[in-house]
Amino acid sequence: MKDYHKHLSLSQRIIIEQGLNERKTFSAIAISIGKDPTTISKEVRKHRTIKHHRNPNKKPACAHWKSCQNKYLCSDCYSVKLCKDCSKCRFQCTLYKPKECGRLNKSPYVCNSCGSLCSCPHFRWTYVAKYADDSYHQLLRSSREGIN
Asked: Which of 61, 90, 108, 133 is the most exposed place for a label (fewest CB within 10 A)?
């Protein structure tokens, strides 16, 4: 029997994380914890977190890379024709927007079980049960502030 009215517990969130890591569908995860698949989808999208590359000096390619015509944003650009060919300009360009993976626009909305993680140049979105639970409880606390 599905439980539509109670919030997710940490143990349910752990099952969601494990299911995502095992490439299970939202429907399969929902059945295992007695929730609606829409609940799982909303939970994952609301509480996913971005994981940056280990190297803080490495930024993903810019979403505007193909059409970029900027020149000479840094002193190194005099040796290349356009800034998009310079590794330093990503840190100086005001139009820089990280290119996102198209897989994040559809289920499962996270990279937990992606086979391309090692070679992926994009920021990684992951669902981590402990972070999701902490985030949810922080939202509850902050929404109750000022209420007697």
From this structure: 61
Residue 79 and residue 71 in contact, taking contact as beta carbons nearer than 8 Å: no
Task: Report which of 12, 14, 40, 47 is spatially closest to residue 26, judged by C-alpha positions.
Answer: 40
Q: What is the pTM of this model?
A: 0.73
C-alpha to C-alpha distances, 47 to 17, 52, 70, 88, 137, nearest whole angstrom: 11, 16, 36, 32, 11
Query: pLDDT tens across 81-134, in order?
Result: 676 666 666 667 777 777 778 888 899 999 998 887 667 777 788 999 999 999
Q: Which DSSP state fits 69?
A: -
Per-domain boundaries in the chain: 1-53+103-148, 61-97
Task: Return the H-helix or E-strand segment holding 142.
Answer: helix 129-144
Q: Is 68 exposed, middle or buried (0-12, 13-18, 19+ CB in 10 A)?
A: middle
DSSP state of 57: T
In this structure, what are the phi and psi dihedrals at residue 126, rounded to the nearest 5 degrees?
-130, 155
